[in-house]
């Protein structure tokens, strides 16, 4: 063990041999290292890497260490500095603009899966994208070692919001970290040092305003963009099939300005005018033009008369000569809008490129922050050093020195954002190689020198003459001192000579003429004109004007001519005219201007961000609904510009379910919307959580559901009161239990209906199945699958309340639910045994649905049983299955040829061409387990409807119509069979409007009906059949075969158990001696 820890700094071979000097130096190094470990670390985060590098270089006076972070584009700079009255370790790093992004959650991000109007209320979350994860991890790593956090982002709205994103990431790691805000306007030593000495707190109001703007832009833009794109791509596939027709609440009013100017030019009608002009030529060099004081008149005859009058006596009297000082004002300090406008006009650099270059010059420290609304130099800003550093330039250095000698005289504007000074150079840059960078930097320098110098001075002379009482005026200019014009070549002020004229003198003009002219239309908008209109009407901010202009160019809504003026394209014209035809002011600046004003109030703390957000969402949603209702007007407007026939447009969200409301309920797991949607192959429906893939709660409806819609009514039984659903099933898919058109609930109040469909209520825990769709494609004989869903073909009898029946005979209670894809099978099968034997398939008949409880009043529990078709009789041949129809004849096996879902599927029908029965059976229907020992057919009657009137005495029987008050009609069964000649009640209306009421006339309702409204009821078919159920068991009283029933008799005595084979007491079928 070493006596001194500092010996570890020496190689092992030298740890014994060292002198005193080396020992002292080693101890000092070790002490400094230990002190550094105990030193407080301060994390500084800038908006860009260049800014972080320059800030660190200035604060450390060049004595900083650089190391790599997790992101190769964002370095880490370290140095020691005196802060908070102590020496601290400064760690400076950066982000790359916004660290977090906003987007919709789950399925709301899918264009085809959501009704666009839902995006106005859809949940939004902030997240860090994969591209910025390394930056985020760097912040998290450094936060763990830091006690304080200083935000060095740009001092504007966006910079403040980026700062709060950084704070959010850092406080997630260390909630108690101290947070400060550095406010600066230029990256110079004086500015950053002053910012570090006057640290403040971040402004939450400003950040909240940006959050409101981001959310509104996302919701509004996504809703309108998806709506326009999905529709117009289908309506005009040749022109717009591959285009994204975007909408933005700033870009659309910007497009509106361009279209409005273009239409003004198109609608302009020129008008001719006439004017008089007087010319006096003193000699070959001196010539004076006098302009008519009336300017011009639109009546040629009147001007002609005045001309003749002047020519009658052409003597001109000089009635007034006035000489006065004239000044041309130097420019105002430069703000962002003026920089964009002047760069576009004078330098021919568009606004987007201008701001890109300005940002680069700023981060390099050559100019101040380029995004400012201020045109007043603050009193505390020392301008002398800024002018002094420009004296070295050979082009404008001499003028800069003269300004210093004569004294600075900056011109002041009237605007100030209280955040940044006007744009100005911060240091001399004589080594710029990029042409546009050099031109823009030179412009900023010359503009700055011009605005701190003096106005140009001159003398102006104005002479007025009269000829026959008609007045004419001429003016001249003599420049005395050019001043700022010497350094500012972007403006002109030229001499206009005027000969010496004395008041009271007379002269004869050389000519008096009449000239013809015409009014001219306004010019198309230039980029500078467009930016001026955007600023005037509050569209966007000085930082976003260029982006909005570039967007409408990129979307081909407008183009730029060779002279730099904007011309609307066909798509832009059609969209604007379509919305204008609706009476919706989307192309006008009003809506966005109101939003910008509200955001300003949020920044000032005058309004709540949530209040502004709610108002704006409601306002734009109302506009969106109006636009959807009148969408044909957009089609009509665009058809004028496109040489293409309009196509019929399908629903803009084809897999979002039927048109109308698609929101079913809130997900019990994540509280997002459960929506009704179509499958991708457009063949079926499902309900799924919009939080997918994070939440996989879903209900997959079977293929037999041809159509389903969400009803306005809600279930009054389920605790969550979900809406009822209107189902349309495949023909006879769930007969005899449910009609093809069914109105029901899948919230869990009707378990038998849900079990028949093969679904279960939504889980309160998220489902994470890899393939939830597989639950809808299982075969008919599969039971519950691993996911917990019930197979679409599973029988009702799969629960503990299932009913078992035994015996030999024909049983007709089992009607298997349909399968999505029914495959034909041969008429004979070695896997099918006779009725008296067993089957390797699950052939247990389903238990019919329970009747509704007394307090269950909605339509989901209404049941309707049709007269069942008997299942075929099976022969005693163990190797064959013979299908026998109702005529006791072998049935005919046929194959479906008609195109449709059953194409290729085999079925049995009566073989008789005439006079046969209406027997029908699919060949792949599972063979039933016999439920009675009777050899004949067992049938049952449909139960009466809940509202059926079955009064005694003289009361008449009524059907279901008119609330159960419509008298029923008595008819007689004509069809050959066991019920031929039997009378029954039915609805008296025509067949196409009949209700589903049915009742046998001789049915007493109390004698052996076998239908009970108790829950979990099990049914047995055949009077002597054996039936067992958990809660209640009843035998239907019309069986024709013999058998035994293990039920209680009407006298209350329990019957002795009998064998199902020989009908003898004392043993069961399994131990029957008659069976070999």
UniProtKB/TrEMBL annotation:
Keywords: DNA-binding, Isomerase, Metal-binding, Repeat, Topoisomerase, Zinc, Zinc-finger. Its EC number is 5.6.2.1. Residues 411-430, 762-860, 930-956, 1006-1076 are annotated as: Disordered. Residues 1057-1074 form the CCHC-type domain. Residues 203-624 form the Topo IA-type catalytic domain. GO terms for biological process: DNA recombination; DNA repair; DNA topological change. Residues 1064-1076 have a biased composition (Basic and acidic residues). It comes from the Eukaryota. Residues 885-926, 961-1004 form the GRF-type domain. It is an enzyme of class 5 (isomerase). It catalyses: ATP-independent breakage of single-stranded DNA, followed by passage and rejoining. Pfam families: Topoisom_bac (PF01131), Toprim (PF01751), Zn_ribbon_GRF (PF06839), Zn_ribbon_Top1 (PF01396). Residues 763-809 have a biased composition (Low complexity). Gene3D superfamilies: 3.40.50.140, Bacterial Topoisomerase I, domain 1, Topoisomerase I, domain 2, Topoisomerase I, domain 3, Topoisomerase I, domain 4. SMART domains: TOP1Ac, TOP1Bc, TOPRIM. Residues 41-185 form the Toprim domain. GO terms for molecular function: DNA binding; DNA topoisomerase type I (single strand cut, ATP-independent) activity; zinc ion binding. GO terms for cellular component: nucleus; RecQ family helicase-topoisomerase III complex. Residues 828-843, 946-956 have a biased composition (Polar residues). Signal peptide: none annotated. Releases the supercoiling and torsional tension of DNA introduced during the DNA replication and transcription by transiently cleaving and rejoining one strand of the DNA duplex. Introduces a single-strand break via transesterification at a target site in duplex DNA. The scissile phosphodiester is attacked by the catalytic tyrosine of the enzyme, resulting in the formation of a DNA-(5'-phosphotyrosyl)-enzyme intermediate and the expulsion of a 3'-OH DNA strand. The free DNA strand than undergoes passage around the unbroken strand thus removing DNA supercoils. Belongs to the type IA topoisomerase family. This is DNA topoisomerase. It comes from Daphnia sinensis. The lineage of its organism: Eukaryota, Metazoa, Ecdysozoa, Arthropoda, Crustacea.
């Amino acid at each position: 063990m070493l006596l001194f820890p500092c010996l570890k700094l020496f190689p092992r071979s030298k740890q014994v041999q060292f002198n005193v000097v080396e020992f002292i130096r080693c101890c000092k190094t070790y002490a400094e290292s230990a002190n550094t470990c105990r030193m407080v670390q301060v994390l500084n985060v800038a908006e860009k890497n260049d800014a972080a590098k320059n800030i660190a270089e200035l604060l450390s006076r060049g004595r900083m260490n650089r190391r790599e972070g997790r992101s190769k584009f964002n370095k880490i700079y370290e140095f020691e500095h005196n802060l908070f009255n102590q020496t601290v370790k400064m760690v400076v790093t950066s982000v790359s603009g916004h660290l977090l992004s906003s987007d919709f959650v789950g399925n709301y991000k899918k264009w085809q899966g959501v009704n666009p109007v839902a995006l106005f209320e859809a949940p939004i979350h902030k997240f860090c994208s994969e591209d910025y994860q390394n930056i985020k991890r760097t912040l998290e790593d450094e936060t763990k070692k830091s006690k304080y956090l200083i935000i060095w982002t740009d001092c504007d709205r966006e910079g403040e919001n980026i700062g709060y994103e950084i704070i959010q990431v850092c406080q997630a790691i260390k909630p108690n970290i101290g947070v400060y805000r550095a406010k600066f306007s230029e990256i110079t030593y004086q500015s950053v040092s002053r910012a570090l000495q006057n640290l403040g707190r971040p402004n939450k109001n400003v950040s909240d305003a940006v959050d409101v703007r981001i959310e509104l832009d996302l919701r509004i833009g996504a809703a309108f963009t998806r709506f326009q794109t999905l529709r117009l791509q289908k309506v005009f596939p040749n022109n717009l099939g591959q285009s994204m027709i975007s909408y933005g609440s700033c870009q659309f009013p910007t497009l509106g300005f361009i279209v409005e100017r273009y239409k003004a030019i198109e609608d302009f009608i020129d008008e001719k005018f006439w004017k008089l002009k007087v010319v006096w030529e003193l000699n070959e060099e001196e010539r004076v033009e006098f302009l008519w004081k009336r300017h011009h008149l639109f009546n040629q005859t009147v001007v002609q008369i005045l001309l003749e009058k002047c020519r009658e006596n052409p003597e001109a009297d000089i009635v007034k000569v006035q000489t006065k000082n004239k000044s041309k004002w130097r420019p105002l300090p430069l703000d962002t809008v003026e920089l964009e406008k002047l760069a576009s006009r004078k330098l021919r650099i568009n606004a987007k490129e201008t701001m890109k270059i300005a940002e680069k010059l700023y981060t390099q420290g050559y100019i101040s922050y380029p995004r400012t609304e201020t045109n007043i130099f603050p009193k505390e800003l020392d301008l002398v050093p800024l002018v002094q550093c420009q004296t070295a330039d050979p082009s404008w250095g001499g003028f800069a020195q003269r300004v210093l000698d004569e004294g600075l005289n900056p011109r002041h504007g009237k605007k100030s954002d209280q955040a940044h000074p006007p744009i100005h150079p911060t240091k001399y840059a004589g080594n710029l190689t990029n042409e546009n960078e050099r031109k823009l930097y030179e412009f900023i320098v010359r503009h700055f020198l011009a605005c701190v110098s003096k106005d140009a001075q001159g003398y102006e002379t104005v002479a007025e003459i009269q000829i026959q009482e008609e007045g004419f005026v001429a003016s001249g200019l003599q420049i005395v001192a050019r001043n700022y014009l010497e350094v500012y070549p972007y403006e002109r002020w030229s001499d206009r000579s005027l000969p010496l004229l004395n008041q009271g003198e007379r002269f004869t003009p050389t000519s008096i003429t009449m000239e013809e002219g015409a009014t001219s239309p306004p010019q198309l908008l230039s980029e500078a004109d467009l930016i001026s209109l955007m600023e005037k009407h509050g569209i966007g901010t000085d930082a976003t004007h260029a982006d909005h202009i570039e967007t409408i160019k990129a979307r081909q809504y407008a183009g730029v001519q060779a002279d730099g003026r904007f011309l609307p394209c066909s798509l832009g014209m059609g969209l604007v005219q379509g919305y204008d035809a609706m009476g919706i002011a989307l192309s006008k600046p009003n809506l966005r201007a109101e939003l910008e004003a509200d955001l300003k109030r949020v920044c000032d703390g005058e309004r709540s961000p949530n209040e502004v957000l709610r108002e704006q969402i409601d306002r734009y949603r109302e506009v969106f609904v109006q636009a959807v209702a009148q969408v044909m007007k957009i089609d009509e407007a665009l058809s004028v510009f496109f040489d293409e026939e309009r196509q019929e447009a399908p629903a803009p969200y084809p897999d979002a379910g039927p048109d109308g409301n698609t929101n079913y309920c809130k997900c019990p797991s994540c509280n997002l919307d459960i929506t009704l949607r179509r499958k991708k192959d457009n063949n079926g429906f499902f309900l799924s959580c919009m939080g997918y893939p994070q939440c996989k709660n879903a209900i997959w409806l079977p293929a037999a559901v041809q159509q389903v819609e969400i009803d306005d009514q809600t279930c009054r039984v389920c605790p969550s009161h979900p809406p009822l659903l209107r189902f349309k099933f495949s023909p006879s898919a769930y007969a005899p239990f449910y009609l093809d058109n069914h109105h029901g609930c899948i919230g869990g109040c009707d378990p038998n209906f849900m079990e028949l469909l093969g679904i279960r209520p939504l889980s309160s825990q998220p489902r994470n199945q890899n393939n939830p769709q597989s639950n809808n494609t299982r075969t008919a004989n599969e039971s519950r699958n691993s996911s917990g869903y019930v197979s679409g073909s599973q029988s009702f009898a799969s629960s503990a309340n299932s009913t078992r029946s035994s015996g030999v005979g024909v049983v007709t209670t089992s009607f298997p639910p349909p399968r999505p894809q029914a495959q034909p099978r041969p008429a004979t099968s070695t896997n099918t045994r006779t009725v008296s034997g067993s089957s390797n398939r699950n052939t247990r008949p389903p238990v019919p649905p329970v009747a509704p409880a007394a307090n269950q009043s909605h339509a989901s529990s209404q049941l309707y049983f049709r007269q069942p078709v008997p299942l075929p009789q099976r022969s005693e041949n163990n190797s064959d299955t013979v299908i026998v129809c109702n005529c006791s004849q072998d049935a005919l096996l046929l194959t479906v040829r008609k195109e449709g879902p059953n194409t290729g599927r085999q079925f049995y029908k009566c073989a008789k061409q005439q006079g046969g029965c209406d027997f029908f059976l699919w060949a792949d229907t599972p063979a039933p387990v016999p439920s009675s020992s009777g050899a004949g057919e067992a049938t049952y009657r449909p139960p009466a409807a809940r509202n059926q009137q079955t009064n005694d005495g003289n009361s008449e029987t009524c059907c279901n119509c008119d609330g159960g008050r419509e008298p029923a009609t008595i008819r007689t069964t004509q069809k050959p069979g066991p019920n031929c000649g039997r009378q029954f009640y039915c609805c008296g209306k025509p067949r196409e409007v009949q209700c589903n009421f049915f009742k046998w006339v001789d049915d007493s309702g109390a004698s052996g009906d076998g239908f009970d409204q108790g829950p979990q009821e099990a049914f047995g078919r055949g009077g002597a059949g054996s039936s067992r159920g958990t809660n209640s068991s009843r035998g239907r009283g019309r069986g024709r075969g013999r058998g035994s029933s293990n039920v209680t008799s009407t006298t209350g005595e329990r019957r002795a158990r009998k064998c199902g084979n020989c009908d003898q007491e004392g043993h069961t079928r399994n131990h029957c001696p008659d069976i070999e």
